[in-house]
Amino acid sequence: MYKRKSRKLDEPREMEAKVGIIKRADGSAMFKIGNTIAMAAVYGPRNLYPKFMQNPEKGILRVNYNMFSFSVSERIRPGPSRRSKEISLVSENALLSCLNLEEFPNSVIDVYIEILQADAGTRCAGICAASMALADAGIPMRDLVSAISVGKVGDAIVVDLDKEEEDYEGGSTDMPIAMMPRNGKISLLQMDGNMSKEDIKKALELGRNTCNKIYELQKRTLKEKYMVEVENE
Amino acid sequence: MGKILIEDKSIAVPGEILAEGMDFLPAGGVFRENDKIIASQIGIVNIDNRLVKLIPLNGRYSPKKSDMVIGDVVNITFSGWVIDIGCTNFAVLPIRDATSDFIDKGEDLSRYYGFKDIVVAKISNVSKTNLIDLTMKGPGLMKIKGGMLIDVTPSRVPRIIGKQGSMISLLKERTGCKIIVGQNGKVWIKGENFESEKKAIDAIRMINNLAHTTGLTDKISEFLGGSENVQKKEQETG
């Protein structure tokens, strides 16, 4: 049976969140889980150019996921890659379900997710940061989005895999999930590896519990920022 | 019978359930899902009898009819001027609402308002698709010359103006500056000298940062000290 050294199997790594870290952006946030750090900045809603991309019925959301070249142990080539394009797309779809873009015709909301330090679970950290940044920008949302990766390492179902667990010799499966915790709707579900139907059900249940914890942290962080503002006054 | 799940005047974040039951009505910043009323923005909860409302703490300016706004000219077209008032879409100032002069076909419109000119205008109409029409016809609407323009949070503009304009008249009286506050969070200040303008800007920034506290008028009054006119009179008589 696979065992973890410093934490339980259903325990996520230590989390930290901050809001309003980038002054020039309309909204921004940082989300840290273990050694993974993601930053997100939101600009807009603003006018969309080129004009042919405008949609007079509703606004559009553009998400850009990027890893800094120094974020991993071996330098990665900066700029877009096949992987970062895919993650941008799935993050966009994960965030889109909580936004009501019909209020912003002909305009765009730009979300930039930057990974400062990567130790697995970067897309989940990115989505958590981005949803906080969207709330910080004052964009109407149905709910915040929380995300966590669950999976199977060896023969154990675990929550929040780190890089070491992802590369486990006994075989590992990684399944990132993003959800809106208020009604429990899932907006991102991917899987890399093999898992049985029963294992997926168990993993989803664990992920759901962890997402609720992240949701509490996100709400607390957002409230704290404005609470401080109110108290200082 | 429904119930309120959050304290009045506390901070809510998107997705937070504020009230349950069909006898409560959702107003600005909230929405209804089944029988629950849920916040859609970060803001301060305001419960007025059966009405549940959220006063947003951030976000861009959302245009409303008959608001006075300050903006700059970003483009000139055949039919009028395109003006940036700091919300998502640009506003349009048509020729017929801009001036009562007769303008001939093909005349150079930059004679009236050129690029980067700053204008105080009133919103005459907002369409469902967020098209904004401006007008220059009304008292106090004009092109701005000189002075300084600063940005404040649009949701805090009511505090800068104060009840029946108490705060703004205090600022004008104590600093001797001309001040115009646009509902879109732009404030124009023009004084006789730099010192008085600086004082007014500091006071407005202070109001912007302290917008949620009570007794703000007293604090600002203390910050500004006595009025220049009063001091001058004291010197003359003393």
* Strand runs of chain A, count: 9
| Uncertain spans of chain B | none
Structural class of chain B: alpha+beta
Total of helices of chain B: 6
End-to-end Cα distance of chain A: 55 Å
> Portion of residues in helices of chain A?
25-40%
How would you spell out the order of helices and strands of chain B? EEEEEEEEEEEHEEEEHHEEHHH
Sheet with most strands of chain A: 5 strands, mixed
Q: Which range does the strand content of chain A fall in?
A: 25-35%
Q: Which strand-content bin applies to the residues of chain B?
A: 25-35%
Please report the number of helical segments of chain A. 4
Overall shape of chain B: flat
Write the layout of secondary structure elements.
The complex is a heterodimer of chains A (233) and B (238).
Chain A: E1 15-19, E2 27-33, E3 36-47, E4 60-67, H1 82-96, E5 107-117, H2 122-136, E6 146-153, E7 156-159, H3 163-166, E8 172-180, E9 185-189, H4 197-232
Helix pairs in contact in A: 1-2
Chain B: E1 3-4, E2 11-12, E3 17-20, E4 25-26, E5 30-33, E6 36-39, E7 43-48, E8 51-56, E9 68-76, E10 80-84, E11 91-94, H1 95-98, E12 118-126, E13 132-135, E14 143-144, E15 148-151, H2 157-161, H3 166-175, E16 178-181, E17 186-190, H4 194-209, H5 216-224, H6 228-237
Parallel strand pairs in B: 4-8, 11-13
Antiparallel strand pairs in B: 1-3, 2-7, 3-6, 5-6, 7-8, 9-10, 9-12, 10-11, 12-13, 12-14, 15-17, 16-17
Helix pairs in contact in B: 3-5, 4-5
Quick structural summary:
The complex is a heterodimer of chains A (about 230) and B (about 240). By secondary structure, chain A is of the alpha+beta class. Chain A has four helices and nine strands, in the order ββββαβαββαββα.
Q: Would you kindly provide a written description of the structure presented here, covering whatever features stand out?
A:
- The complex is a heterodimer of chains A (233) and B (238).
- Chain A has 233 residues and is α+β, with helices and mostly antiparallel strands.
- Chain A is built from 4 helices and 9 strands, in the order ββββαβαββαββα.
- In chain A, strands 1-2-3-5-4 form a 5-stranded mixed beta sheet.
- Chain A starts with 14 loop residues before the first strand and ends with a helix.
- Chain B has 238 residues and is α+β, with helices and mostly antiparallel strands.
- In chain B, 23% of the residues lie in helices and 32% in strands.
- In chain B, the strands form 4 sheets. A 5-stranded mixed barrel of chain B has the order 9-10-11-13-12. In chain B, strands 1-3-6-5 form a 4-stranded antiparallel beta sheet, with no helix packed on it.
- In chain B, a hairpin with a 5-residue loop joins strand 12 and strand 13.
- Chain B is flat and about 65 Å long.
- Classes of the chains: A alpha+beta (233), B alpha+beta (238).
- The interface between A and B is medium-sized, with 37 and 28 residues.
